[in-house]
C-alpha cells in the first residue's frame, strides 16, 4: 500500500488529503470536508489534468499579445506539447473572449480560446 499526501484545490478550504493506493487503485481518500475533495484526489492520483494558460501574438491590434487558455483541462503529460504548439501562433485582430485560437491542441480534443478582447 502506498500513501500520498495532497492539498485539495477543489474549493477554497485547501483540505490536506491522504490517498491510500494499492498499485494504481485508490483504496481510500481521507481529510476532505466535501465531495469535491474526494473527486479531486482520485483524479489527481490516477489521471492528473491541468488548465494551461499562455499568450499568443496579435497582428494589427491595440495590444501585441492576447491571453489564452485551454477550454478544458488536458492531461498533465501534454502540457509542454501544448505550449510548443502555441509558440509560433499569430492571430489577426480583432480577437474576442472565447474565440478559438487553436483547435484540438496536442491531439487532446481541447481547443485554445482567447481570454481577453483585443481590438
Automatic annotation (TrEMBL):
Q: What is the protein name stated in its UniProt record? A: DUF1667 domain-containing protein
* Signal sequence range: none
Entry-linked InterPro entries: CPE0013-like_sf, DUF1667
Q: Pfam families attached here? A: DUF1667 (PF07892)
